Amino acid sequence: MTWSSALKDTARAGLTIERTPLEPKLALRSACGVALVIGVLLAVATPALAVSSAFGAFAAGLATFQRSWRPRPVLALGVAAGLGISTFLGYLAAFNHIVFVVLLTVWTLLAGMAWAVGPVSGLVATQTVAVMLVTVTLPTSVWGAVHHAALIVVGGLVQALLIVLFPIRPWGLQRDALADALAAEADYARRLRHDPMAPFDPHPLIEARAAAELTPRQARNRPRQLGGPRGIAERLRPVLAALADPVVGAPAEGPERDRVRDLLGATAVVLDAVARAIRWGKPVKLPPEAMAVLRVPESGPMLTGPARRSAYRLMALLGDAVDQTDEPGRGTRRAPAQEPRHLLRPTVPRLVPVVLRALHREARWSSPVGRHAVRVSAVASVGYVLGTALPLGHGYWAPMASVMVMRPDFAQTYTRGVARFAGTVIGVLIGAALAALLHPGVYVCAALAVVCVGLGYLLTGTGYIVVSACIGAYVIFLLGMVGEGWSQTVQARVALTLLGGLLAMAGYALLPIWETSRLRDRLAEWLSANGRYALAVLDVHARPAERNQRRVREALLDQRAARVAWEEAAERALKEPVRHRGISRTAERAADSALATMGRVTMLMEAHLPDREAQPSPAAGQFARALQQALPDAVTAVRERRALDWSLPRQALAEWHAREGDEGVAVRGSELLVDALDELAAALSPGPGGRNRAARRGA
């Protein structure tokens, strides 16, 4: 993609306003927190102190709208602590521009590295930089620093207290994540009715697993509806695929295929009912027609072989899903010895070593997060110096705009830059027009500021341009509370926001890290994860008495994470203004299809793992050893743009055929696995011949 096309696409994305479900109760609660802080401080103190504390309340409220599985009060308290520390340090260094620039550079570097922990941590750290920049215009005594830092912390504490006193749909995010996973399984079942090879998006299952990670305190209070259906959803996917697949399931046409279609349709209905029950904490309501289909028929078409086993497994799993969900959601307190097992989420104190490991892992020049940290710290420092040198006043607006805009990847940075400038212009103009017409006093300005904050909270999911417009008007009214007229701030705000956005975009252009050049590494990681998953499944078929279900499960999770990392990298690469380096779009699509097929075939073999009492299969073990020998060299070949060699697995498969024939799920799955590996080799074969073969296979 050329630079002109990339800029056009990012500008269009930045100006897009999406229609998303609104959460008025949450927005009202957070806006009330800001109103409470401003109102109390206006009554007992000065407008300047009210404005200072309003920053803490606003930032804490904004952080609680981010998608995080941590309890909302914990997020608000974390933001309050970070804002208090950054405010105090900013006050201490504000007496000298050079000292402050040094502090700003170091603090922004650390804030940029916070993206290594996660997007919510990165956003919170960005908020602390913004508040530090604001404090340079306020008194610099040590006592004043403590005073203002405490007020900002109070703003966050108020938001946390409101969340505790007025809970709105507790466990709502976790409920939505689990319901989305079950709804995705229902949609998958519907698509399998018409297309037995329909793809499945693993993102909902990944989100559901992340939502299921709990601290011990959360585990004691989790509603029972959230305890078991996630594991059932995980086990349902391979069963559905195995039932619909014409190779290891029912024939492609005939009475058995009609029976499979009926089962898949009824499964979708049941899963949708379970998803609705979990989402809203209500009992499951099942239509009797669907339940009739999910019983073993006394007459009519009957399934045989592997399809019959898959159907029985499907009925059992659906029964478990209904049984574990069919009750109103409520807290369940058990004695520690009776607590169910759950995915462990570290408590806040135990997060320290996790954070340190993440920072150490990303503290390198080749890391997107590490490069982002250096880039944002340099841009913030330059922006502060330029903003201070310009005769516009409020010079901190330029670096603040840069910091709020910049992200570790190209598309988000440029999209947010356009949205920030356009939204700021709109918000400042609206705020200035209202100020010019109403000539509001201190309390009217405070009320209008709270209204802008409430609209920002309410519309936070519609697009960054809308949020920027609300923030722009919010700043106009906040400054109006301390006596600054709108005419003094409009031009400066617009000009400095434009300067900050341009600096952010220039910073990424000068210090980029393109995802396009890393695509082969991501592809190699996906191939490696696919291979480990296949080896774990084949090992169970080879030695059923020694089956290690945990190894299979961990390999599946690694494979799923590698696939998502590849898909996200490929999506970001599409938006980058660089020519392809190492892999063409045609080869990329063909390789994606081959590895997706490899993962699906392995999943089908996992759906038919033998019991511990089953006979071992030496041929499956021999095939697994051949694949294990060929895999490391193939992964290296993908990175180094060499031809892939799968002769060892192909030879082992031929010997398997000669020894045991072509009956059985394992041998059929291994045939499809080798076919997928050959497709991958053709897609990545160097030279025009390989690309042409990939194009033909992709067509």
Describe the structure.
This protein is mainly alpha-helical and 699 residues long. It folds into three domains: 3-169 and 366-510, no CATH class; 225-328; 516-698, Methane Monooxygenase Hydroxylase, Chain G, domain 1, CATH 1.20.58. The chain is 73% helix and 1% strand. The protein has helices at residues 3-14, 24-44, 47-63, 72-93, 97-113, 119-134, 142-165, 172-194, 203-212, 216-221, 229-244, 255-280, 288-293, 305-325, 351-362, 368-389, 397-405, 410-438, 442-458, 464-481, 486-510, 519-542, 549-574, 585-607, 618-640, 647-660, 665-684, 688-698, and strands at residues 213-214, 343-344. The chain has a two-stranded parallel ribbon with strand order 1-2. Helix 6 (119-134) runs antiparallel to helix 17 and helix 26 (647-660) runs antiparallel to helix 27. The radius of gyration is 29 Å and the shape is globular. It starts with a helix and ends with a helix. The relative contact order is 0.09. Residues 328-340 and 689-699 have low confidence and may be disordered.
